[in-house]
Amino acid sequence: MVEKILEEVKNAECEVVFMQDIAARKEQAKATRRKKKRTCSSSLMASTFPEMYRLTGEILGTGAYASVQTCVNVWTDMEYAVKIIEKVPGHSRQRVFKEVETFHHCNGHPNIIQLIEFFEEEERFYLVFEKVNGGPLLNRIQEYVHFTEKEASQIIKDLASALNFLHKKGIAHRDLKPENILCVSNDELCPVKICDFDLGSGIKFNADLSSPVTTPQLLTPVSSFNVRLTRQSNSLPALFSSAGGKRRVYGPRSG
Questions:
Q1: Which of 66, 153, 183, 192 could join 85 via S-S bond, C-beta 3.0 to 4.6 A?
Q2: Signal sequence: where (predicted)?
Q3: What domains appear along the chain, each with residue ranges and CATH number?
C-alpha cells in the first residue's frame, strides 16, 4: 500500500516537472520571437543604402550634382535605378527633400516614375526608383527623326495624363523635355513616364511662376529675351520641336 502511494506521488512529481518544462519552453520561444522582432525592426530602421542595395556599375545618366545608376536589391535581386546626389555646397539639402516630397505626392500614377525609397548618408543622398528599360524619349526622337500621327498622339496622351495629375495637385514640373521623359519598353514608344522633378515647384498656377527656371538650350528666341514662365512652359508640342528643330511629328517614316 505504501509503495503504491509513493509511486503515485513520484508520478505526480514527474508530471509537474514535465508541465513546468513545457511552460518554460513556451516562455523561451516567446522571448526568442520578441527578440527576433525587435532585431528585425531595428535592423530595418538602421539600414543604409549599401546594406540594402549593390551597384552594378551601369551608368544610366549623369548631371551636375548627381548620377543615375543601376542597383540591385540584395534580398530580392530586383533591379532599380538609383539617383545618387552628392552633398556639395551648390546643391541644397532642402532641394532634395522637395524632390522626394513631390514624388511622394505622385505615387501610383502610371505615367510618372515611381520613387521606391530614399536614403540620406553622410556624403550623399540616394533616391531609389523603379527602373524602365526604354531610355529617354530624346533617343527615340533622334532614332525615328519624326513620329507618325498615331505615335505622337499616344505619347501626348500619356504626358497630358501625367501633367493633368500634377497640375491638379498644384505641381509644375518646369523642366519638361525629351531627356526627362522615359520610355518603359525597348520595343514600343509607349507608355512613357515623366521623371526628374529637381526643378519642380509646388506652387499653384494662380501664383506668379516668373522665376527663370528652365534648360537654357531649350529656350526659344522669344523666351531668351523674356524668361517669364507660365503654364506654356509645359507646352507639349514644344517637346518635339525643341528636340528636332521641326514641328512636323507625323507622316510616313522614310527608310
A1: 66
A2: none
A3: 50-130 (3.30.200.20), 137-244 (1.10.510.10)
